[in-house]
Amino acid sequence: MTTPQPLTPQRAHTLRLLLGDQLNPEHSWFATQDDGVVYVLMEVRQETDYVLHHAQKILAIFAAMRDLARHLREAGHRVRYVAIDDASNRQSVPDNLAALMAHYGAHTLQYQHPDEWRLDEQLRTWGAEQAFAVQAVSSEHFYTARTEMSEVFKGRKQWLMEHFYRRMRQRHSVLIGEAGEPEGGQWNYDHDNRKPWPGTPALPPDARPTHDHSALWATLQAAGVQSFGNPQAHALRWPLNRAEALAWLDHFIATTLPHFGAYEDAMSTKSARLFHSLLSFALNTKMLRPHEVVQRAQAAYHAGAAPLPAVEGFIRQILGWREYVRGIYWAHMPGYDERNALGHSMPLPEWFWTGKTRMRCMQNAVGQSLEHAYAHHIQRLMVIGNFALLAGLDPAAVHRWYLGVYIDAFEWVEVPNTVGMSQFADGGLLATKPYVSSAAYIDRMSDYCSGCHYDKKQKVGERACPYNALYWDFFERNESTLGNNFRLGMVYRQLQKMQGPQLDALREHAASLRTRLDAL
Ligand SMILES: Cc1cc2nc3c(=O)[nH]c(=O)nc-3n(C[C@H](O)[C@H](O)[C@H](O)COP(=O)(O)OP(=O)(O)OC[C@H]3O[C@@H](n4cnc5c(N)ncnc54)[C@H](O)[C@@H]3O)c2cc1C
Ligand code: SF4
């Protein structure tokens, strides 16, 4: 029998891995101090390179990891931080872990359940081959367990968000009256929401912190890490720790939440954000817990500080959509990210990387994504995703672009939104019909069309808005798959009436557009 070796400052009995999206300083791991435990954070090429990322995404994640490491050390914990340019860095999570386990002579490795299938699979298979104990624990972040959705929707063909959301409201007593009814008498206030923004009310101030991370940016460049988009390294605007995230949450609730609902679908050249929260980065990196965000929004309604339609609309995004898409992801991975129900295969036009297109809506939505690593939901869905679906772009390429460009993009939330909701590539599991529109919707909800090179009213011709011909052509091309969808009856009846020269001209124009997407 071997006698356990006494701990020296260099040795440890347990290593605990913290991934770049596991930055919750209030995880129960940190409730007690143990000199035999070392927390490990690492900046690795495995994570910077699995897709081409926006520069701000890499910068913000690494800067926030460094901040958490500092915070943990100050709180008395032992931390091993492997920086991207450390000589000992093997640039892969398992390789670094293996080396560190040997270095510290540890017998147990613990990690929090990763939210991406890719990492979960990697750690599980690698862990099973090790001689030491490898244990996975909860990240203590979400309302629901990974597998819960499969149980809720067992045997159902369609997994409707509304069904799941009402269940969540009841189960967690969110906006629920004493008799179990939804507060205000309705589950959903969409008819009060979804207005265009006419220029008033005034835009809320952007009180997010500003960080100078030019030194980290120089390190990343020297290490040869590739990225795209504006790094804004001198003035990075994302909250990088829990205290900053909480302050930003409070500011949002006080200044912006009251108008969130009314303008949640509006788009404007005057503001990238309008009345959205910009909380997704802090939430997805787990600096904030969804429960506290929901509770604060609910409290604002109860205190009379925000109207019910705004609060319900906001809470639905977090208690409903966010948990729902995660459930979809875990129930259908692996393989969900590769679905392509409509057989689309066109490559992304070059201007997805530059924003240089004459379509003003795309110029704005893609342009601000490259500039800020952010676009709000309707820009992602009804401008960029809409165009990608109508034009027949390869959903896997669209998915990789979304996964790279947005500050909040992690596969568990990005894939269902892109592949399912936006590209209908799962054949309608998540969305009951494709989210597509012609210019009319974009014009109603934004100021993009006035001042655009293209004419929102024209359907064919050089100056016709490309969305118009592509819209009808999309439904005609996909009639065998979509024709029987009960939500599309009106579209197909209209298409029937257009048979003849009108539809021929639209088809011809759409075919011509699809051959020259780069030039639009
Ligand atoms: C094609 C496409 C791709 C997307 N990719 C991502 C992604 O990679 N990461 C991501 O967090 N969100 C993604 N979304 C959802 C949504 O667009 C973003 O959560 C939102 O724009 C983030 O900005 P915000 O914090 O200002 O959100 P707000 O509009 O203020 O909403 C509040 C919060 O609700 C949550 N939320 C809102 N809508 C959704 C949704 N559909 N799914 C999940 N959570 C939601 C987010 O946590 C968000 O922070 C995507 C949507 C589409 C259509
Ligand atoms: S006219 Fe068409 S291309 Fe131009 S902004 Fe409007 S929807 Fe976009």
Describe it.
- By secondary structure, this protein is mostly helical.
- Helix content is 45%, strand content 6%.
- It has helices spanning 45-49, 55-74, 93-104, 117-128, 148-152, 161-171, 214-222, 242-255, 257-260, 280-284, 290-302, 308-332, 360-372, 377-391, 395-405, 411-422, 439-445, 466-477, 479-482, 489-497, 501-515; strands at residues 14-17, 37-42, 53-54, 78-82, 108-112, 133-137, 227-228.
- It has a five-stranded parallel sheet with strand order 4-2-1-5-6, sandwiched between helices. A two-stranded parallel ribbon has the order 3-7.
- α4 (117-128) links the parallel β5 (108-112) and β6.
- It is globular, with a radius of gyration of 24 Å.
- The termini are far apart.
- The structure holds flavin-adenine dinucleotide and iron/sulfur cluster (SF4).
- The site of flavin-adenine dinucleotide has 27 residues, from α10, α12, α14 and α16.
Short recap of the structure:
By secondary structure, the protein is mainly alpha-helical.
Question: What are its keywords?
Answer:
single chain; 520 residues; two-stranded parallel sheet; binds flavin-adenine dinucleotide; binds iron/sulfur cluster
SSE map:
Blueprint: E1 14-17, E2 37-42, H1 45-49, E3 53-54, H2 55-74, E4 78-82, H3 93-104, E5 108-112, H4 117-128, E6 133-137, H5 148-152, H6 161-171, H7 214-222, E7 227-228, H8 242-255, H9 257-260, H10 280-284, H11 290-302, H12 308-332, H13 360-372, H14 377-391, H15 395-405, H16 411-422, H17 439-445, H18 466-477, H19 479-482, H20 489-497, H21 501-515
Parallel strand pairs: 1-2, 1-5, 2-4, 3-7, 5-6
Helix pairs in contact: 6-12, 8-11, 11-12, 12-16, 13-14, 14-18, 15-16, 18-21
Iron/sulfur cluster binds at residues 359-361, 439, 442-443, 448-449, 452, 454, 456, 465-467.
